Amino acid sequence: MPKKSKEEKTILSQKLRVVSIGISTFADDLRSQGVEVVGVDWKPPAGGDVEMSRLLERLGS
Amino acid sequence: MITRVIVKKATYRDSISLMKISNTISKLPGIAQAAVVMGTELNRRVLSEAGFAGAAIGRAASVDMIVAIEAKDAMSLVTASTEVDRLLSPGERPAGEKAPPASLEEALEVLPDANLAVISVPGQFAKREAMQALARGLNVFLFSSNVSREEEVELKRRAKDKGLLLMGPDCGTSIINHKVLGFGNAIRAGTIGLVSASGTGAQEVTTLIHKAGLGISQAIGTGGGDLSEQVGGITTIQGIELLEADDQTDVIVLISKPPAPSTMRKVLEVARRCRKPVLVNFLGGYVSPRLLGKLRAANTLDDAAGLACELAGGKRRAPADTLPEATISTAFAENKKLAKSQKYLRGLFAGGTLCYESQSVLRPLLGDVYSNAPINSDYKILGEAPSKKHACIDMGAEEFVEGRAHPMMDFGLRNLRILQEARDPETAVILIDVELGYGSNADPAGQLVPVIQKAKRLAEKAGRNLPFVASVVGTEGDFQGLARQEKALSDAGALISPSNAQATKVSALITSGGSIEAKIREGPN
User: Fold this and answer.
1) Residues whose CB is less than 8 angstroms from the CB of residue B241 and which lie 6 or more positions away in sequence, other chains included
2) What is the helix (H) or strand (E) element at residue B279, kind and residue range?
3) CA pair distance B398, B144, nearest whole angstrom
4) What pLDDT, on a 0 to 100 scale, did the predictor assign at position A3?
5) From the list A15, A36, A40, which residue is nearest B104 (CB)?
6) Of B86, B127, B413, B440, whose CB count within 10 A is highest?
7) What ipTM was assigned to the predicted interfaces of this complex?
8) For chain A, what percent of residues have pLDDT higher than 70?
9) Sign of the torsion angle spanned by Cα atoms A46, A52, A54, A56
10) Quick one: pLDDT at residue B22?
11) Are B138 and B115 a contacting pair, CB within 8 Å?
């Protein structure tokens, strides 16, 4: 059995601290609920080339 | 009229930002119509149906942006194009303010102890972002749709191995520690915890619980594919176990479309082991008594909310499935006003689960219903095809959202469909759902009222009376205002029901009148 340390608390018992990637209104809605949020100004990787981004992903993994 | 179409290669903005820009440009003087959209197949088709022709649109790819403007004169066109460019430019940042992070890595430099990533990028890029978040030890709320089942399995296995929760893909709603992720409503805190494979299902049940005076501890969204055979309920099982261990939760409610049989067995086995009472709602899907064991089952979302309240110590309320007498009389009165040609019910849904629930409620009343997301696959019609006989269309299905904001936010496509149904002499009633809360349009009634009025006028000109039935998913705490929204829709002539299940029954009664009265009065079906 893994021992339960403070670090192993589940998300249900933690204060949410969020990175929001994509639609900016989701970040705005969380901010309005008092949640600490950092929004990412996301752009498609490799200029939007899906094949290229899959290749990069494979190389990176 | 002059039109101009510009394709901006490899230029990306999210669908909601683009919807806002499109709306702003459409309202400029001298502009007949305007759209700024990503060049997905859906958007290219919508543009060509709106009268924008040209090879440039055909050559655009889903990662290219299309700016399409139709103006009364050249001056208006130039002004609008300039305004598009201004709205698309990042704008000046005050001196000293840093640019926002461009990646998860950069964001974690700003917020090193982040514990959750909310990801809503186009589907083809979603796995990559989610894998990176998991690798950095973050839980994930994955809103993106168009993610393959194989990718979902890979993501969920990785999450589980790391002791993290991956909600999604195609996860519309979660409420974690009383904070709404994605679409969701202002719900009071309470002791009922949800695990839901359906976003609108969770919204419907949580708002009905709130209206009954009780509240929610957590609502863990799993994404609609979680209970498929391939995924095997990985997130659902994690969710049930989390709620069983959660001090705030006394009652567990499990919501999903009917799961794959092997997955249902697995998930219910875990549920039966819980010490806390567990209530399941598979939206009309059959569960054998042996599998159910000590668990409770509910037929509709309305029923699930009522039973959950009872299990959490609330008062037993009147069976939610029973229509009040006054409502039955109103429906009969509407039925009498129908022309001979008006034979079929047409449901146009922003909420996919509500579309499914309506089909499930209608099945014993009117028989199987045609749908782009049918219960019975023999009744499948394409989303973009005209409705056939009784039909329920999920306007939030993947074919309607690729590169477009969800219909809870962007009413464009559903409004067009409402007018299409209104022109069809066979349409007897139009059934709609309206969702309030975070993520939804700031004024859904404001979007719908002019269209309802226009649809009614269209039908009237052709000698028909066209009734509308609506249910509003929301609470008085939602920023759009539940009472204000319901009043505006009611003033426009829509009949308002307190739940989708009831709205569906009212619509069925309007369509078929006395012939199904006995079945309606029998109560839950």
Assistant:
1) B270
2) strand B278-281
3) 10
4) 44
5) A40
6) B440
7) 0.89
8) 61
9) negative
10) 94
11) yes
Residues of B in contact with A1 (CB under 8 A): none
The radius of gyration of chain A from alpha carbons, rounded to an integer in Å, stands at: 17
SS3 content of chain A, % helix, strand, coil (to 5): 50, 15, 35
User: What are the two backbone dihedrals, phi and then psi, of residue B458, each rounded to the nearest 5 degrees?
Assistant: -55, -45
Low-confidence ranges of chain B (pLDDT < 50): 525
Residue A51's pLDDT band, with cuts at 50, 70 and 90, is low
Element (H, E) at B433: strand B427-435
A28 Cβ under 8 Å from any chain B Cβ: no
Per-residue model confidence (pLDDT) at position B362: 97
Asked if B122 and A13 come within 8 Å (Cβ–Cβ), the reply is: no
Interface test with A, best of B16, B120, B160, B185 (most A CBs within 10 A): B120
Contacts of A39 (CB under 8 A, 6+ apart): A20, A24, A27, B100, B101, B107
Task: Test B119 with A22 for CB contact under 8 angstroms.
Answer: yes
Distances (CA, A) of B54 to B31, B70, B75, B79, B517: 19, 13, 22, 22, 53
Cβ of residue A46 closer than 8 Å to a chain B Cβ = no
Q: Do A20 and B110 touch (CB under 8 A)?
A: no
> Token digits for B306?
């009522």
Lowest mean pLDDT of A32-36, A47-51, B162-166, B419-423, name the range. A47-51
Looking at beta carbons, which residues of chain A come within 8 Å of B100? 38-41
Residues of chain B neighbouring A12 (CB-CB closer than 8 A): 176-177, 218, 242-243, 246, 248
Please give the residue of chain A at the shortest CA–CA distance from B142. A21
Structural tokens at position B144: 């993106």
Please, are residues B212 and B157 in contact by the beta-carbon 8 Å criterion?
no
Q: For every residue of B111-127, which 3-state class applies, written as one string?
A: CCCCCEEEECCCHHHHH
> pLDDT-based confidence at A61, cuts 50/70/90?
very low
Nearest alpha-carbon partner for B100 in A38, A9, A60: A38
CA quadruple B126, B179, A36, A15: dihedral positive or negative? negative
Residue A1's pLDDT is what? 42
As a whole number of angstroms, the distance between CA B415 and CA B407 comes to 10
Q: Tell me if B169 sits within 8 A of B163, measured CB to CB.
A: no
Cis peptide, bond prior to residue B169, ω within 30 of zero: yes
The region of weakest confidence among A4-18, A20-34, B461-475 is: A4-18
Q: Could you tell me if B133 and B173 are in contact, meaning their C-beta atoms sit under 8 angstroms apart?
A: no
Q: Do B111 and A19 touch (CB under 8 A)?
A: yes
Which of A17, A19, A25, A51 to mutate to test binding with chain B, by most B CBs within 10 Å of its CB? A19
Q: In this predicted structure, what is the pLDDT of residue B96?
A: 73
Distance CA B219, CA B252 (A): 10
Residue by residue, DSSP assigns B131-166 as HHHHHTT-EEEE------HHHHHHHHHHHHHTT--E
Cα–Cα distance, B467 to B327 (Å, whole number): 14
> Pairing state of beta strands B31-38 and B65-71?
antiparallel
